[in-house]
Amino acid sequence: MKKPNQRHLLKGTLCLIALFCACSVFSQIKYVYSIDYALGQKDRYIDWVESISADLQAPPEVLRITSHDNYFGTSPHRVIEFEFENMTAAAEYFSQRKIADIIGKAQEYGINASIKILHQRSDYEAHTSGGVIKYVTLIDYPLRQKAAYLEWIGSIAETLTSFPELIRVRSYDDYFSSSPQRVIEFEFNDLISAARYWERPEIMEIVNSIGNHGTNKRTIILERRSDYRTPVRRR
């Protein structure tokens, strides 16, 4: 039996997920696409992205595309975020032949690709502009303790967002409740501002208590790239 082509599997899986979820009424959806640069092939990948970035940004269904490099060069090396009004818009976007072909070709330029679908929560005040440095905290809700976790978040949200170093904070649930179940993004103008923020006693106290409310916590640090310049389209 002929072995399935990984490129076709990835393209097909992405389209099927989008179409399967199109009936949902969830809003503010983010597709997070992670990939590693093949050894010594980062420049080749970036050149390819430059050749297809305009096509990815052209369809009106996508609100914004943002790309990031892992600050420390660890896996995943690169994270690309596609933001949509809802799953219907995502399905329409990824079902387009040109978009599906581009996504499928990514495996020719990178390795270890994966996709995660997130639904934005309203735990924090909305802001449209973000920072250059993004701390992404991944965490799971303890068994049957999601409500308790969210109650705790409600009690600390004001403190988390009260310091000037923080440009924006956003939280998400995994669309399918798979691990990591929750994603929180803290954005800053630079790493120095981030360090000042995390060193504040009030913030350190909250960080040190996370283990009492969630499990499997880990954090990655991303640096925003300028590959895409999609204007923030109206939601």
Q: Which residue ranges are poorly predicted, with pLDDT under 50 across at least 5 consecutive positions?
A: 18-26
Number of domains: 2
How confident is the prediction overall: mean pLDDT?
88
- In helices, the fraction of residues equals 25-40%
User: Could you tell me the strand content as a percent range?
Assistant: 25-35%
General description of the model:
With about 240 residues, the chain is α+β, with helices and mostly antiparallel strands. The protein has two domains: about 5-120, 2-Layer Sandwich (Alpha-Beta Plaits); about 135-225, Alpha-Beta Plaits (2-Layer Sandwich). About 35% of the residues lie in helices and about 30% in strands. The chain has helices at about 5-20, 40-55, 85-95, 95-105, 145-160, 190-200, 200-210, and strands at about 25-35, 60-70, 80-85, 110-120, 135-140, 170-175, 180-190, 215-225. It has an eight-stranded antiparallel barrel. It is globular and about 45 Å long. The model is unreliable at about 20-25 (pLDDT under 50).
Features:
235 residues, eight-stranded antiparallel β-barrel, Alpha-Beta Plaits, alpha+beta, single chain, globular, 35% helix
How would you summarize what this structure contains?
35% of the residues lie in helices and 31% in strands. By secondary structure, it is α+β, with helices and mostly antiparallel strands.
